[in-house]
Every structure is written in C-alpha cells, then in structure tokens.
C-alpha cells in the first residue's frame, strides 16, 4: 500500500514511477580465439623441438649435415634465441643478454635456454588477447607486424627449423617426436 501511495504522489509531481532497472550485464571477457589458435600451434611446435632436444644424444649436438650449416645443438639454440627475440618484442619484456647459439654448446645448457624461452613465450601469450594482439610491433628492427602476427611468424620460423632438426635426426637413425605420436 505504501508503494502505491508513494507512486501516486510521485506521479502527481510529474515524475514517472517505474521499477528499478536491472543492473547492467557484466562485460564479456575479451576474445582469445585467434590467440588460442596461434598458441596451440606454438605449443605443438615448441613441444616437438623440446622433445627432440631431449631425445638427441649430446654427442650429436655437434652434428652438421654439411660443414656450412648449423649443428643440431645450434638449431636448438637458434630456436631459443628467436623465441626470446620475438616474444620479447611482443611483450615488451627484457630478454636474456647474449645469444644462446653463440655462447652455449652443452646439451643441458641449451635445453635450459630452450625451456626458458618456451616459458617466456607462454607468459607472452598469457598477457595478450585478440584485441591487444592486433597492436603494432616491429620485428627485428624493420618488419612491421602485429603482436599476434609476430607470434605466428615465430611459429613459422620454429617449424622451419624443426624440419631441419627432423632431417638431422633421420640422418642419424632417430625417429623425431612428431613421428612418434
């Protein structure tokens, strides 16, 4: 009864009396569909590289298919270096000083650098969504891209070198991780 009287008084005063509006719906979480698809490929590729680095015996880390190409160990280290570089550009975070490829030769050191690079890139993926992934970056000082474009480039680069690693492994009668699944 009090509500009806109050509404009548308010209506006579020229103010509409309506039920309170429902609270606004919570904002939808940012989209991550594109990021998640690029990350899925990254996880697969870097997973294959990491498992190959574990599988290859240390004595083969110096193996080269020909004298003028990278050794197996250098390929693993190069993937770590490139991943640090690209993910550092995308995230804006500082990367470790020095080149893994130029300074590390022991299997354990290269594996640790590769694991660190994988974790660093994982944190980079965690920090962006599809909207922030569309922000512009410049890769390697001259290549215009977006953040997600940079991460996709890193996938292509790492998969290219995984192909080299597969060839080196097969030349040494090892079955690469992607063929073991």
Textual characterization of the structure:
The protein is mostly helical and 181 residues long. It has one domain: Four Helix Bundle (Hemerythrin (Met), subunit A). It has eight helices and two strands; from the N terminus they run ααααααββαα. It has a two-stranded antiparallel sheet. Strand 1 and strand 2 form a beta hairpin. Mean pLDDT is 92; it is low at 3-13.
Largest pleated sheet: 2 strands, antiparallel
How many discrete domains? 1
**Widest sheet: strand ordering:** 1-2
Order of helices and strands: HHHHHHEEHH
Q: Secondary-structure map with pairings?
A:
Elements: H1 2-12, H2 33-55, H3 72-91, H4 100-103, H5 107-126, H6 130-133, E1 136-139, E2 143-146, H7 147-171, H8 177-180
Antiparallel strand pairs: 1-2
Helix pairs in contact: 2-5, 2-7, 3-5, 3-7
Attribute tags:
181 residues; mainly alpha; Four Helix Bundle (Hemerythrin (Met), subunit A); two-stranded antiparallel sheet
Describe this structure in a few short sentences.
By secondary structure, the protein is mostly helical.
